[in-house]
């Protein structure tokens, strides 16, 4: 216990010296005793113990021992990847600022400190590519809504949907309404996604068939829209249905960005130029909370 406290104190000092934007603790580590003004986040993720690999018959033990170094590396790499993805997710949702993140990662048998630069994060770099077409504030707003829909569904049921952002004129020309457009005739302020008061209607309409069409300034142009698009040459991972394929296809023929929410699997996909730019597990936030929130709950 004292060893872990010492490591945590070292991580806090390092974060303060580096002027890090956040500290992320990943593993079954107590946060008691952490005292810093830097935001502290926590993620619990168990990994199989190296000891489990060593408990075997004597005949197999020699091979197991030779694999210990590789197992340690794999566990640490998995933890680092998880931490980097968590950092990127929180940044994309506006919870973290750009900069350095200090992480404390724990496998069952080891503990270490890493420093991650969000500038170099692959997901963050992909997001910046999207922001060349759709403003960052609009992207983040739609992602927040997508995460909410993916993690909570609607009325206790899982929901899948898709958001098409930008290049509205071309997207509308390549699609048609399958129901009456619930946003037709409404004032701009009532269709503005940047106003959080309007999010509830989006979540409600996410149960409708079809996609949402959103302007690059965050106005809801349509819901319940069917994409008239030839998607035969679109190649996506197996298991992704027509919603994902048509969303990817519309980004091939326009300069729009598509964000889809899987009805099953808790995955959010982002498409651009007919290809998947990234996929994010919406469940990554479920075990991710600030220290301040954690204290308030206790």
TrEMBL record:
Residues 120-282 form the DAC domain. It catalyses: 2 ATP = 3',3'-c-di-AMP + 2 diphosphate. PROSITE patterns: DAC (PS51794). Its EC number is 2.7.7.85. Pfam families: DAC, DacZ_A. SUPFAM superfamilies: YojJ-like (SSF143597). It comes from the Archaea. Keywords: ATP-binding, Manganese, Nucleotide-binding, Nucleotidyltransferase, Transferase. The keyword Signal does not apply. Its cofactor is Mn(2+). GO terms for molecular function: adenylate cyclase activity; ATP binding; diadenylate cyclase activity; manganese ion binding. Belongs to the adenylate cyclase family. DacZ subfamily. Diadenylate cyclase that catalyzes the condensation of 2 ATP molecules into cyclic di-AMP (c-di-AMP). c-di-AMP is a second messenger for intracellular signal transduction involved in the control of important regulatory processes such as osmoregulation. This is Diadenylate cyclase. It comes from Methanolobus zinderi.
């Amino acid at each position: 216990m004292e060893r872990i406290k010492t490591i945590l104190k070292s991580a806090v000092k390092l974060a303060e010296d580096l002027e890090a934007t956040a500290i992320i603790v990943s593993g079954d580590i107590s946060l008691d005793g952490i005292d810093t003004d830097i935001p502290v986040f926590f993620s619990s993720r168990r990994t199989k113990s190296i000891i489990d690999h060593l408990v075997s018959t004597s005949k197999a033990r020699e091979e197991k021992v030779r694999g210990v170094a590789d197992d340690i590396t794999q566990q640490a790499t998995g933890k680092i990847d998880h931490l980097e993805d968590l950092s990127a997710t929180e940044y994309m949702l506006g919870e973290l600022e750009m900069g350095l993140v200090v992480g404390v990662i724990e496998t069952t048998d080891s503990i270490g400190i890493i420093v991650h630069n969000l500038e170099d994060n692959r997901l963050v770099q992909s997001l910046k590519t999207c922001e060349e077409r759709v403003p960052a504030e609009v992207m983040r707003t739609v992602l927040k809504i997508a995460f909410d829909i993916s993690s909570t569904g609607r009325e206790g049921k899982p929901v899948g949907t898709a958001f098409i952002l930008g290049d509205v004129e071309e997207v509308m020309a390549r699609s048609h309404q399958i129901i009456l457009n619930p946003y037709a005739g409404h004032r701009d302020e009532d269709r503005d996604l940047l106003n959080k008061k309007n999010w509830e209607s989006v979540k409600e309409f996410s149960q409708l068939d079809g996609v949402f069409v959103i302007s690059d300034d965050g106005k809801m142009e349509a819901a319940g829209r069917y994409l008239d698009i030839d998607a035969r040459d679109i190649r996506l991972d197996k298991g992704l249905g027509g919603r994902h394929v048509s969303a990817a296809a519309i980004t091939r023929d326009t300069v729009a960005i598509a964000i889809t929410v899987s009805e099953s699997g808790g995955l959010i996909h982002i498409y651009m130029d007919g290809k998947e730019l990234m996929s994010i597990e919406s469940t990554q936030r479920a075990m991710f909370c600030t220290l301040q929130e954690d204290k308030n709950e206790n």
